[in-house]
Amino acid sequence: MKKVLLVILFVSTISEITKAQSDTERRNWFLEGGLSFYLAPDWGTGESLVGGMLNIGYYVSPRSFLALEVGGYPQSKKIGTFTYYNTSNPSKIYTDGVITRESLTIPVLFTWNYMFDLSEKCYLHVGPSLGATMLSASDMYDPDDVEGKPSPNEAEETVFSFGANIGVTWNFAKRWFLDGGYRFLGNTTATFEDREVKGVTHQINIAVGWRFGKPKSL
User: Fold this and answer.
1) Are 174 and 125 in contact (CB under 8 A)?
2) What pLDDT is attached to residue 80?
3) How far apart are the first and last CA of the chain?
4) Can you tell me the distance from the alpha carbon of 133 to that of 56, in angstroms, rounded to the nearest whole number?
5) CA 12 to chain centre
6) pTM to 2 decimals?
7) Segment 126-153 mean pLDDT
8) Is 53 within 8 Å of 36 (Cβ atoms)?
9) Whole-number Å distance between alpha carbons of 212 and 218
10) Residues 81-104: pLDDT tens digits?
């Protein structure tokens, strides 16, 4: 349900932007999307994740902008085996099955950035990030309907997220730009596998963006 509400919120935000506005009002909005890496999370399999990000923002002044960023990082990975009682094969009563852990991480962050010119078409941006991250993970068993299958690990939580980001933007066309950024992100405590997880993670984004119109600041 939370994921559905998140999608509705994001679509509604974009819809409001594209309603009857003048070019002067529209020109400060931008939209970007691309590849994202979620490094060293203490959740799910504990391995780094690869996913995507979508960012919608607004230049509030010639030197700063606000943005809403949504990321998505799915993962499915074999984490082990289990032994079950195989009634269909008398010659091999005890058989190994496969345990796969499926996880999904969705950070939703509001960011504010201040810009420093590096050249005529390139600038550095730095600022804080604040929001929440939705975490879900569950263990899948293959085969599933067998005797001896252990109890699955399942969890779904939403944690408070906060951090700082830095990046570089290159304006290679009037409305198009290429953006690369790094974010240090901390999360409040979650519970997984009967242990507390207080994740500190790192994000790296590589994205292409488009402006609804060229703002005065660029």
Assistant:
1) no
2) 75
3) 40
4) 18
5) 19
6) 0.76
7) 79
8) yes
9) 13
10) 777 666 666 666 666 778 788 888
